[in-house]
Design a protein that fits this description.
The chain is α/β, with parallel strands linked by helices. The chain is built from five helices and 15 strands.
Length: about 190
C-alpha cells in the first residue's frame, strides 16, 4: 500500500511540475521518470535486503530502457521528477530529499575511489538544471537551484542559486522571504480568481 501511495504522489508531483503532462495515465505509461522510479523502489528494497545482484540487475535493465541510471543503494524521497531524463546518473551513496526536480544530463556522482559516503546529499525542493554535475559528498540545502551545466564541488546553502564552473553562489535569500513571496503570489492569485 505504501508503494502505491508513493507512486500516486510521484505522479501527482509530475503533473504539478510539468505543463506537458495531461493525465496520470499518460505519466504512468509514457514518462521514463516514473518507470525508473518504480524500478528503483523495487531495486532499493532488494538492495536493503542484501540481494545486491538482483537489485543491480533491475537497475541496469531500467537504465537500458530509460537512459537513467540510479544505483539501488541511493536514498530517494518522494516526488522525484526527472524531466526528459536521458543521461541522468545517481550514485550509490547519494541521498535525495522530497520534491526534487532533475533535468537531463545531470550527474550526482563521486570524485574518486573513496569508500563510504562519496555522493551528494540533496535537500527538499531542489531544482538541478540540465547537464549539471554535483560531485562528492557535498550537501545541497533545501530550496536550492543549480544552473544548467554547473559543476558543484562544495556545499550549497539552503535557498540559494549556484551557477558556473566551478559553481558559485549568486543568490541567497532567507527562507522567510521566500515563504512571504510565495504567500503573496497565492494571495494575489486568489484575489484575481475571486
Amino acid at each position: 500500500m505504501k508503494f502505491l501511495k508513493r507512486l500516486k504522489y510521484d505522479i501527482d508531483n509530475i503533473i504539478k511540475n510539468d505543463p506537458a503532462a495531461r493525465s496520470a495515465f499518460e505519466v504512468l505509461i509514457l514518462y521514463p521518470s516514473i518507470h525508473v522510479i518504480i524500478a528503483y523502489r523495487i531495486a532499493h528494497m532488494l538492495y536493503m535486503k542484501k540481494f545486491y545482484f538482483l537489485a543491480r540487475f533491475i537497475s541496469q535493465v531500467s537504465r537500458f530502457f530509460t537512459g537513467i541510471e540510479i544505483h539501488p543503494g541511493a536514498k530517494i524521497g518522494k516526488g522525484l521528477f526527472i524531466d526528459h531524463g536521458m543521461g541522468v546518473v545517481i550514485g550509490e551513496t547519494a541521498e535525495i530529499g522530497d520534491n526534487v526536480t532533475i533535468y537531463h544530463g545531470v550527474t550526482l556522482g563521486g570524485t574518486g575511489k573513496d569508500k563510504g559516503k562519496r555522493h551528494p546529499t540533496v535537500g527538499n525542493d531542489v531544482i538541478i538544471g540540465s547537464g549539471a554535475k554535483v560531485l562528492g559528498a557535498v550537501v545541497i540545502g533545501n530550496g536550492v537551484k543549480i544552473g544548467a551545466n554547473a559543476v558543484v564541488v562544495e556545499d550549497v546553502p539552503a535557498y540559494s542559486t549556484a551557477v558556473g564552473i566551478p559553481a558559485k553562489i549568486i543568490n541567497k535569500r532567507p527562507k522567510l522571504i521566500i515563504e512571504i513571496s510565495e504567500w503573496k503570489k497565492k494571495s494575489m492569485y486568489n484575489e484575481m480568481v475571486i
